[in-house]
Amino acid sequence: MDDAQLLRYSRHILLDELGVEGQERILRGRALVVGVGGLGSPGALYLATAGVGHLTLVDDDTVSLTNLQRQILHTQARIGWPKVASAYQALLDLNPQLQVTTVAQRADAARLAGLVADADVVLDCSDNFTTRQALNAACVQHHVPLVSGAAIRFDGQLTVYDSKRSDSPCYACVFPPDHTVEETRCATLGVFAPLVGIIGSMQAAEALKLLSGAGQPVVGRLLMLDARSMRWTDIRLSRNPVCPVCSASPPQRPG
Fold first, then answer.
1. CA dihedral 85, 91, 97, 98 (to 10 degrees)
2. For the chain, how are helix, strand and coil distributed in percent, rounded to 5?
3. Long-range contacts for 63-66 (Cβ within 8 Å, ≥24 apart)?
4. Distance (Å, rounded) from C-alpha 36 to C-alpha 90?
5. For residue 167, what are the CA distances in angstroms to 64, 117, 181?
6. Which pTM does this prediction carry?
7. Selecting from 3.30.565.10, 3.40.190.10, 3.40.50.720, 3.40.50.1820, what CATH number does the domain 9-236 have?
8. What are the helix (H) ranges across the chain?
9. pLDDT given for residue 253 in this prediction
10. Rounded mean pLDDT of the chain?
């Protein structure tokens, strides 16, 4: 780190659990953020402020007026822009040292596999079951930890799937790909604006812990928030020994 970086990230460096070594790991880190809407906005912003060296942003949508109630990466002046272009502008304004790659399309399974292979951590901030399953499969294939978040109405959830660990389930263990899922979207059911900020910020926190080695990620635990009462429920998750995705991919420990 140079002197400017030592000053910029000094409040991280002061933390015993991080220090210079942890911050340097963050600076070398590569994060993939799929979806730069309600969850991806705070997620990407905190990764950027923390100095993650390279961010890849994937989203095929454009900024609309209805997004501005909760998607804090975007502004009135950028209505009509591709969301990844708006996010690129916001993140570089915040931290010009970042390297940011944008993908302005809904990535299919093959494209996601390539993007995941180049990442150290993945944030699933998407809003549909198909993308979540494809992203999970790519993370299992390449043994990249997946930080999964979701929010609708007043209900949010967060967990980390890490196929490097023998005790970690994958997304398909919890939500089998052959089950019928009714898609729920903010456009039809609504979402409490601060809820996506809470969950997206927690996704960034888990990603930074994974990159830096600080703390314990919430692997094997599903945290569920009822924002009406601000009550959390902590559910233990188990690996499915016959999971169609991860049972054929043995865990790998970092070498």
1. -60
2. 40, 20, 40
3. 66/187
4. 12
5. 41, 22, 26
6. 0.94
7. 3.40.50.720
8. 3-8, 10-13, 19-28, 40-50, 83-94, 109-117, 129-142, 171-174, 186-189, 193-212
9. 47
10. 94
Could you give the angle at the alpha carbon of 211 between the alpha carbons of 70 and 74, nearest 5°?
20
Left if phi > 0, otherwise alpha if psi is -120 to 50, otherwise beta: which for 237? beta
> Which of these, 82, 139, 75, lies nearest to 105 by C-alpha position?
82
For residues 16 and 174, give the distance between their C-alpha atoms in angstroms, rounded to a whole number: 35
Model confidence over 112-145: pLDDT tens digits?
Answer: 999 999 999 999 999 899 999 999 999 999 999 9
- pLDDT bucket at 176, cuts 50 / 70 / 90: very high
Q: Which two tokens stand for residue 107?
A: 């990535």
**Residue 34: half-sphere exposure toward Cβ, Cα within 13 Å:** 32
Domain ranges of the chain: 9-236
Model pLDDT, residue 249: 64
For the cut 70, the answer to whether the pLDDT of residue 251 exceeds it is: no
Nearest in space to 38 (alpha carbons), one of 79, 71, 74, 83: 71
Which element (helix H / strand E) includes 222? Answer: strand 221-226
Judged by DSSP in three states, 85 sits in: helix
Is it the case that residue 252 has pLDDT exceeding 70? no
